[in-house]
Amino acid sequence: MSSPELSVVEFLLTTHLYNQDRDRDENDLPPRYRRVFWGEEGIERPLPSTLKKAAAATGVEHPWEAVSGLMFTDFDDFNQVIKLTEVDLAKQWYLDRAGPERIMEVPTLAATFEDEVEDLDYEHSRAQNRPLRADRVWIDSLLEEYFESEEEEEMLDLVDILAPEEIDMSLDDLVLTADQEGEILKIMKAIEHRDYLAQIGLREIGKLLYVGPPGTGKTTTARALAHELDLPFVEVKLSMITSQYLGETAKNVEKTFEVAKRLSPCVLFMDEFDFVAKTRASDEHAAIKRAVNTLLKSIDNISLIQDDVLLIGATNHPDQLDAAAWRRFDEIVNFPKPDRQMRSDILWLITRNMEIVDFDPDEVAELTEGLTGSDLRLVMREAVLEALTEERMVLTQQDLLDAITDFEERDTLKDLDMMNGDHDALIAGGSDMPGGSDSDHDHDHDHDHSHD
Fold first, then answer.
1. Helix, strand or coil for residue 22?
2. Residues 375-428 pLDDT 10s
3. What fold characterizes domain 340-448?
4. Which CATH number fits domain 136-334: 3.10.129.10, 3.40.50.300, 1.10.230.10, 1.10.150.450?
5. How far is CA 386 from CA 128, 410, 449, in A?
């Protein structure tokens, strides 16, 4: 059962009990509460149960109106604070309406009611609650403290940092091969048993290289893993090393690894890893080569077991990697283009919120050999948009078949254009093409699509 009334009472009880019990800390509050109460000094007692805080934490627009009819609540109009006048009465009211599953979402309440309600386990509640170190507010405060000067803030141009709450994709939303699932399971077990691995001296673990064509889900899977593990996701833009305004490139590379260690435990993701090998084999400026060598040494010096950093590299071009790059990773995970069954499964995922008459994903999968998960999403996008031009929100199987034909025609035109080097044609047709250019197409496939 959930209602505005129940949500507000839950908020009032949580803030009251947290203020009273000095044994409770930030990880006893659910993330939606921590975000509301976070300040310059972190989260400080007492937590104020103001109208504004209550509305932000619960999503109830008028929290006092929701609970004003209860005999154990009162409102301080001057301070705009909602109060509990009879805490025991409020507890019983809440217990009569909230089941164990709901109470387990708030460790402070689980600790309070553990002895009164069957199936309540405070330690489990706290363990399943996303830790403070994974919150956006905590990440931002740490970065603000670490990068004090404007010059140092430039270092952040080398990385994108996502909190788990900002990743809208879980492993359950992905279609993975058996090998991919196996490697993910192994790394999750390694993280769970880090202390044991350190104890037996097994430290060469936790550096994965994702290998496969664009659009096969390398970035998406890395992000979903971070979401699953409740870890910050730190993505290094290797191509940014050559950017002129970043100053001392080698120093900046070192700084990105320092960021990962500061945010640990976290996932450190390095895309376009073939850039490393290309740079080492080219006549690039000496400073750039030094930066790449620094990068390789930094990889050597970071560890899942010692530093709590899971390192994942990704490349679309494994043929361009040299031995120095390969030997930095203890596991290679292949991301091939999906086979027919995987394409059918991906289509089920993409269309789960769509209404399609006579939908036959197996037929679509049969006709889309060679397409990646990202390509399939582009096909579905085309089908949806075409239907909308006809004022329809219900699709048909024929819409999908027409979209496949249209996608193949555009892909053929793009390939011909790239072979002919007809840049004017590329620009003219850019808005109609999946990525606008081959480079953008590759980038979009691996970064912007969340289903493969």
1. coil
2. 999 999 999 999 999 999 999 999 999 999 999 887 776 555 545 554 433 323
3. Helicase, Ruva Protein; domain 3 (1.10.8)
4. 3.40.50.300
5. 43, 15, 20
